[in-house]
Amino acid sequence: MLNLLKNRKSHIFIGFILIFIFLAYSLYDVTITHGDEYYQKSISNRIKKIETLANRGDIYDRNGKLLATSDIGFSIELNSSIVPADNFAEIMIQVYDFLEAQGESHLEFPIYIENGVYKYRYDESIKKWLESNGYDESWTAKAVFDDIRAVNYIDPELSAYEAYRILYNQGKYLPISTSKMLFLEKIYKTTFLKMYGLDADISAEEAFHKIRSRSEFKISSNYSDEDAYKILIFKHTIKEQGYLKYEPITVASSVSKETAVLVQEKGYEFPGFTVNYTTIRTYPNKSTAAHILGYMGKIATETEIETYVNQQKYNPNQIIGKTGIEGVYEQDLHGENGYKYIEVDVYGKYVADVDEAAYGLDSKNASSGDDLYLTLDLDLQVVLEKGLEKALHALQTGGIYDSPWGDYQYSQYDKAETAAGVVVDVKTGEVLASASYPSYDVNLFSTGISQDDWNALNPVNKRNPLAARPLYNSATMMAVQPGSIYKMMTGFAALQQGLDPYQKLYSDGFVEIGNQRFGCWYWNDYGGKHGPTDFFKAIEVSCNYYFFNIANGKDYYRGIPLNFEMNPTVMTEYSKLFGLDSKTGVEINEVSMGLPDPEKKKKTIMALLSNQLHLIAKNYFPEELIDDEDKLNALVSTIVSWSNDNPGRGELINRLLDLGSNPDYYVTEALADIIKYDYFNLMKWYESDTLNLSIGQGDHTYTPMQIARYIATIANGGYLNEFTLIKKIGDVNIDKNQDVIESFDTKGNLDYVKKAMLQVTKGTSSSVNKIFRTMPVDIAAKTGTAQKEGLIPPLDEVAYLTEYLNEIAPSLNIEDVEAKTIEIIKLRSEEMATLEKQKDEAESEEDKQIKSDKLDALIQKDYLNKGTAMRDAIKEMSDFTITDEDLNQFRLPYDNYSWFVSFAPYDDPEIAVVIFIPQGGQGYYSAPVARDVYAQYFNLTPPQETTEVIEIPTVEE
């Protein structure tokens, strides 16, 4: 045995036995003990799961006409593993030249050559941004950032990130990283160069040559740099993919059908390049019903990421509905994505599709989203939108509204920039048409909207609430005074309380309360009186005086009470029956501002007083009270609470002195006058408020959609239906009003209201009669000419105040005002800085939210805006003897709102039509649009062609 062990051949034999045993054990471990585990790992390394996207559901109108669909789009993709290595460079050059010749956008390399000069795209992007913002190339990111924060007087104690947040919230986007204080494009450039191991300061030409000479790219020196650039586009993109080479590269994301066909035909010339069929959301009618349909965009906000990516498992790169029906019904339209499997090699390159059965895998087909059928009638929608557009153009130029039903001469109201209209089925609550003008082409958003297009959709004067806003849905979001169209509501309330509609009340020219006159439009414009007036005539001629009478249950001419009780609360309670205090039910975004009432008025003025005291308290109280936020809040709350008993002027001055106000009696006296006369005295509900309420002025604020619901409820006899835009989702019919409701008009008083509205189009005293006299359908209607309070804000408040400072405040000079303005902005910047820090240091989420809400509130009112600060500087420097009214005296006034509301046929109402034109001048200017809508709905044949042009007096209620 010893001899055997000493034998070298035995050593070798034993060694082989040990190795064999080890290999056998390893084989057993791999195949038996951990066989399944390693098998699964092998599969997971070779087999990749690929998501397949679902087709988005289409959207149709009520008659099956297409409103939105997902058309086939074409993209050019490259599977690099299929391209022959020997011909790679030549093929890439050919593809690049082909796409250029076709005029298609495609991939680019970060370094390009222009007229022999090598440039970084990153540098050119920075240069372009600097030039467009008034800087030259020498400005660094830090210098630009410091300059912008200085120009905006951002507190220097704020961190760069905190300052950036304030600027961003004010709508100032800077392409700068505050953590690195570099332009974002500079960071992208550094990342690009680091990928190739190059220094950050290398020239574009040197970097280009070093990259093209890399052995991994195998670019022959025989190629010019121009051709090498074409090759590098693809080589660089493939390198960026890393181990995901099995995923195709999108070379051109959206190409024409012609290009797609040519690529398919050139398959033998362009191996590895394929046409991929994608879906692009398209809207065949472009801007028609844009505000109803809404637009789409990439998943971007934190809420969207949480909802769609984290919860609904959407692909992060998918496009989702952002607004309108597309947004509200995103998950119904979206469908459910599927998946399949492919095989890749060790480098991650695509090898082949997988025989899923062989691996025990199970693919899942994508499920298409549901189709939606809207209640809209496309043809009616088109007529409504064209009518609004024609009316606006005619108003702006003082031109003619042309129509086969008679042309109509407009007076000029050149400030009319927007309009809205709503058409509803009065029996079902279905919205047949809803338009807001100007509109926008929804297709702009389908593949990502450009910055230029986005800028074009925003108002020129963002400070003017009535400026044209293409993205804004005025039909559901603009709540304003209704004017005389509210008079049916006042009349119905009085009828319910006991008004005899046939009783004639003498309508004098005006009602005098104190030293204030409240005139009828007929008196104000012509010095006329309507005389004996019953309810029907009052609606027909829109007599303010009559509604003053019935709103207060008082015959003002004879000075005696009427035989029924009426007050503001009664009117608002009846208004609720018509839905004027709530949203209409339409599925897209809408607002409801509520009804006016004495308590609401008081709360609104109390809030305004609180805001004003927070702004001016520093001028009247010591610093120890102002600098302590809790003490300041307590001080303001105490003063505001005095509104409950509204003390006399002398008592108010004494109370302020007791609170610690400036001991100089005259200074405190000035504060007392502001509090008492600008706020306390306005909180009380006066008889004059009721008069304004009765004719649709004052605190009334309703959207055209709410008004349409109000008119529909009159027309259908008191059934308050919930409005809807949805008729069917997939195969499920939608009926929001299927539950039987009872009419609230148990006394039949709406019949009187409808009869009075018929007089508007049939009575000889009404100008609207001329517009509808050729219509073969009886239409009941009412016009409204509501006043818009306030004055139009200038495009540039600083320029405006500078220009008129000498007329507004002759004792002040612009240099001192500028200095005071900067001082105010700096103080406000410090205040916002403190809030930012308090928010960041807040220990509880509740406290953090409170601070965040305060910041948002300050941002919303342009707290750091120079124009806002300059206004306050002028007021403060004049010891507050200069008011907002003084500052605004050179602004232009708004023109009146134009309202036209109606329903038809009178005997058996089917639809209601509401037309609204802000700054449209007169109510009847909206009527021709409604007339064309009725003609379309009832399929009416116009009378024989006539050259007559209808002309209306320029002033009428």
UniProtKB/TrEMBL annotation:
Boundaries of every Penicillin-binding protein dimerisation domain copy: 54-352
> Which intervals hold domain Penicillin-binding protein transpeptidase?
421-602, 684-789
Q: Where in the cell is it found?
A: Cell membrane; Membrane
List UniProt keywords, sorted A-Z: Cell membrane, Cell shape, Cell wall biogenesis/degradation, Coiled coil, Membrane, Peptidoglycan synthesis, Transmembrane, Transmembrane helix
Gene3D superfamilies xrefs: DD-peptidase/beta-lactamase superfamily, Penicillin-binding protein 2a (Domain 2)
InterPro entries, sorted: Beta-lactam/transpept, Beta-lactam/transpept-like, PBP_dimer, PBP_dimer_sf, PCN-bd_Tpept
**Where would one find coiled-coil regions in this protein?**
825-852
Tell me what topology the record assigns in the membrane.
Answer: Single-pass membrane protein
User: For this UniProt entry, which segments traverse the membrane?
Assistant: 12-28
One Pfam family named in its UniProt record: Transpeptidase
Q: What is the similarity comment for this entry? A: Belongs to the transpeptidase family.
- What name goes with this protein? Penicillin-binding transpeptidase domain-containing protein
Question: Lineage of the source organism?
Answer: Bacteria, Bacillati, Bacillota, Clostridia, Eubacteriales
